[in-house]
Amino acid sequence: MSLIDSRHSSLATLGAVLVAVFTHIPVTAATPEPRFDTVSRFETTIPTAEGTEDPADIYYPAVSTDGEMRFPLALLLPGALVDKADYSEFASTVASYGFVVVIPNRFRTLTNPISGEKFPGLFAQVEQVNEVLTYMEAEATNPDSPLDGLVDTSLLALLGHSWGGAVGLAAIQNICPPLLCSESFTRPEVLKAGIFYGTTFRDQSQEDVVILPVNNQGIPVGLIAGDRDGVVRGQLDAVVTTYENIQDPPKVLITVLGANHYGITNEDSIRDPVRPTIAQDLSTETIARWSALFLRAHVLQDPEALNYVYNVGDDLDRHVDLEREISAIEAGEGSKL
């Protein structure tokens, strides 16, 4: 198999595909398959701005490219209190579509702004975006690294689960909110898109659920949610409101039928009191496939992925419901499908 790097496709070709996509003329009626049969993984540590190190797992297509084929970087920001190892199946699937997936653990102590109670544990942080990018830029040219000549750090995408997705949404907006960020943050220019599971963008200083606007500044954003997400009352409604509050298309909302809050992890968790009605491996594959194809569509401008996400995918996948919105410029006329 080989990676189709659609950045080298002509604008005319991409334009023709978009016309087909947004007038509902199928380019193909098949689900795009993973590009690579085998994915490798290694463990490392990533230096932080505070002088510590975050343990991290890295997944990548197991190919010898000799520098001729490089893959975009996808940073997966974990949910609160969820270890990086719990995303191995999800990360492997995303990597098989042609990405280098990095999952770091960030251990820190948060203080509840309402009660003052302290919570030590795994909590992703906005600053990790630039820390991981800096580390990967060095790895991309390190002859002793498995990633030497393999990763394209000029193309960065974000993945996230729950808390980690909120961190990703903050990074896309180039902001540094309390709890999600400690110091300051400047969004790297190479950040191209993000897609997040079980994620809301709520005001962390409020006890009630208050969903904030998401000023994504033209960066494509996708949200995925399980229709049995019961981690908090009204979680699915809050995800829908977060989607509605994303200011700039393109954007998508993918609902996975039968999945709960932990449909993205290797195993279900009792931290969600609602049990899923879809098999765990199926929900994980579904979330990973849609995530990977959304990123291929917007990071690599892959016509096959664009067609799947915005045209035929919801007809082909009986396990999802889909809402999508594209800009008037891209759609030709009208902005909402």
From TrEMBL:
InterPro entries: AB_hydrolase_fold, Chlorophyllase-like. Signal peptide: none annotated. Gene3D superfamilies: alpha/beta hydrolase. It comes from the Bacteria. Pfam families: Chlorophyllase. PANTHER family: CARBOXYLESTERASE TYPE B DOMAIN-CONTAINING PROTEIN (PTHR33428:SF14), CHLOROPHYLLASE-2, CHLOROPLASTIC (PTHR33428). This is Chlorophyllase. It comes from Oxynema aestuarii AP17. The lineage of its organism: Bacteria, Bacillati, Cyanobacteriota, Cyanophyceae, Oscillatoriophycideae.
